Amino acid sequence: MESRYKSFVTVEQLPALVGQTVTLHGWVQDKTGKGKLTFIRLRDGSGMVQCVVFAPNVEERVVNDAKSLTQESSIAITGTVRAEQRAPGGVEVDVADVKIYQLSTDYPITPKEHGVEFLIEKRHLWLRSSRQHAIMRVRAAVVKAIRDFFDGSGFKLMDSPMLTPNACEGTSTLFETEYFDLGKAYLTQSGQLYAEASAMALGKVYTFGPTFRAEKSKTRRHLTEFWMVEPEMAYFDLNDDMDLAEDLVEYIVQYALKTCQQELGVLERDLSKLEAVRRPFHRMSYTEAVEWLNKNNVRLNRKQSDGSEVQIDFPWGEDFGAPQEEAIMTQFNKPCIIHRYPTEVKAFYMKRDPENPRVVLAMDMLAPEGAGEIIGGSQREDNHDALLERILHEGLSQEEFQWYLDLRKYGSVPHSGFGLGLERTVKWITGAEHIRECIPFPRMIYRISP
Ligand code: 4AD
Ligand code: MG
């Protein structure tokens, strides 16, 4: 069907339009001149192209308008597309006409280096810079890859609510709000519990949306609002869950490689690192990981009661932090899944390993190159009484979780799922310095604007 809505020719279409006259709509990235030539670099959201005004070929008004352009002025340019080997994208535009929508004055982000604190204050404008722009385009591609993957594999999209009466991932990171006469409500930390109910209705489902954590962590990997995709599958055990996670991550990375060549080029990403992301990934149990750390002398700093620090072997039973995860990943150039963590460090809903009740059937996927954890998941506790015991043990309200316990009363089945953090994944694929560059408007402990 032919579309009726307004559509422009875009920069990314130009290589196929050599020899044709087009009109582009966008903004001036920069402008330079030499004698009878004026060079305008036009950015239109799809890419950037150099547009050349040659004075003898156009009216004097066009020359004057071109010369008056400032950084970020909004314009339309009409001209002929010409092949130019040396230009990025292989084309330039010979300008016939320039239409000015607005001349911009004193754009605060100039080509000189700005500190990241300044840039993040100006996030609403920083998004136009070539690196940020490239990261956002990769983010959009990753979202599309995720949706295509699940929609094409028999999953149904079943979005979980954002406002919830209870916690999913521990009570220490909850954002709280008043909910009319019903008391307190919380912004969701994860859509998982509802996804489990959805999976009992539709089999294989995924929920994909924003999640919220009042994380006190000021790291390069934590946001207070981030996007998570969470598949949940009836009749899947932990192994099935890990297989699916590997399939998904391979698909996302290979899709980004295929469709974001130009963006990854702008970001100067080492593509060979991404090309290596092929199944099977590495897998090891938590216990094997602890043994590896201790065999390789990756020691843990531990404060003693007198304030002094000692270095100790990593104690079995503690959760890994970023230093342990990074150390483990130095061995690998593709992701590694760590499974069967100690029960005490993981969430109440995870199923205990029938072969060793000290561990749960959990799995985390760590990405290489220092990217850290991108996936957390597990097989779920499907036994009513065992789940109730965990709920009570964690001091959670049985009443609030009654609906969740119901799922274990009416046709309970083994089931599993996981959550993949969108921004963590984008950070890894793009090689971005900080997770705040991987979401249009980051929310962090010390930042809520713009
Ligand atoms: O490991 P997490 O906490 O797992 C869950 O929430 C499960 N309920 C998911 C499930 O089984 N359905 O979070 C999953 C992923 C992490 O691996 C990480 O990629 C991302 O979400 N994540 C964060 N990303 C950015 N900022 C934060 N503060 C994040 N916390 C978790
Ligand atoms: Mg986790």
Largest sheet: 8 strands, mixed
CATH fold assignment of the largest domain: BirA Bifunctional Protein, domain 2
Bound small molecules, by name, code or SMILES, are: 4-amino-1,4-dioxobutan-2-aminium adenosine-5'-monophosphate, magnesium ion
Radius of gyration: 26 Å
Specify the oligomeric state: single chain
The share of residues in extended strands comes to 25-35%
CATH superfamily of the largest domain: Bira Bifunctional Protein, Domain 2
**CATH class descriptor name of the largest domain:** Alpha Beta
* Gross geometry: elongated
Number of DSSP strands?
Answer: 20
Mean pLDDT over the residues: 96
Numbering strands along the chain, what is their spatial order in the largest sheet?
6-10-11-20-19-18-15-12
Estimate nothing, just give the exact number of structural domains: 2
Give the class from helix and strand content and strand pairing. alpha+beta
CATH architect. name of the largest domain? 2-Layer Sandwich
> How far is it from the N-terminal to the C-terminal residue, by CA?
39 Å
Low-confidence stretches: none
Q: Which percent bin holds the helix content?
A: 25-40%
How many DSSP H or I helices? 13
Describe the structure.
- 28% of the residues lie in helices and 28% in strands.
- With 450 residues, it is α+β, with helices and mostly antiparallel strands.
- It folds into 2 domains: 11-102, OB fold (Dihydrolipoamide Acetyltransferase, E2P) (Beta Barrel), CATH 2.40.50.140; 123-438, 2-Layer Sandwich (BirA Bifunctional Protein, domain 2), CATH 3.30.930.10.
- The strands form 5 sheets. An 8-stranded mixed beta sheet has the order 6-10-11-20-19-18-15-12.
- A hairpin with a 4-residue loop joins strand 18 and strand 19 (372-379).
- It is elongated, with a radius of gyration of 26 Å.
- The structure holds 4-amino-1,4-dioxobutan-2-aminium adenosine-5'-monophosphate (4AD) and magnesium ion (MG).
- Residues 168-169, 190, 192, 213, 215, 222-223, 226, 228, 230, 373-377, 417-419, 421, 423-424 line the site of 4-amino-1,4-dioxobutan-2-aminium adenosine-5'-monophosphate (4AD).
